[in-house]
Design a protein that fits this description.
- The protein is an alpha+beta fold.
- It contains 14 helices and nine strands.
Length: about 325
Amino acid sequence: MRTRHPALLALTLIAAASFAQAPATSQEKLPLWAYPGHFSQAPASAASLAEGEHLPGSKTSYTKAEIGDLFVVPDWYPDIHPPMPDIVAHGRKPDVYACGHCHLPNGQGRPENASVTGLPAEYIVQQMADFKSGLRKGSDPEMLSVTNMVKLSKSISDEDVKAAAAYFSSFKLKPWIRVVEVEQVPKTKPAGGMLVVEDGGGTEPIGNRVIEVSENLEKTELRDPTSGFIAYVPKGSLAKGKDLVTTGANGKTMACTMCHGPNLKGTGNIPSIAGRSPSQMTRQIIDFQDGARNGSMAPMMKGVVSKLTIEDIVAITGYLASQEP
């Protein structure tokens, strides 16, 4: 019999005693800045799809058609990661997409999906099982990154799941997100599953939002695994986030460090949460609040996040993203 982590056991008991289910968030009330994933860019013209693309320092090239193909992984810099298993590099047609296409060949991910590099292999395997069984869904039924995961989980083999999990867990998440506190933020629009800065759009108050955009949109759209993101957060939110994450803010929540470790880099099968996408982490907190995630750790997490407001979530996820992975 597997022994449960002592901190998890204590938190589960506390959560079971104190948890009152938060009302489900209607799709209309979901924060757009965290849920731009069901919007798409206009398709490229047939002529441009055949054009070859290049990145500095890379010896290869890909057409725009290949870059947009879910069964192709643009592997610009193959020396920065171990050899990819076939399921990561190519997927399994017709409906199991290449893992490395969305998550990138080094697993760093993008705001519309998740950074999976460095997660415990057992944790990844369990999440795939939860997608398959229906225990893990998304609060936004139009969020393609989630609906695609649910769809492919029905067809992918256990052997391929284990191969992908072993691959992504084998190397470390690198610094990927630069967090900046601001009062004004560039105006953005949803495009290609994430937020992009509007050309000539000026600025606007950030409000209670995290605005996560590419450091270099052109490289991001080419699926460059070395080009990261900027997360703009409200002035003063990082100090509030640190209080919530490290102390629980006098009972508002429970300190993330109790389960995820003092440096937030995970313990055992508990995933690391330092240095990961604030957009993705926001969606996971909301999914726990709404009941879209119901895996084995969900009862504890539901209690932990049940009292959090959007302002709290902004502070927590911004602070977590600012930490060294």
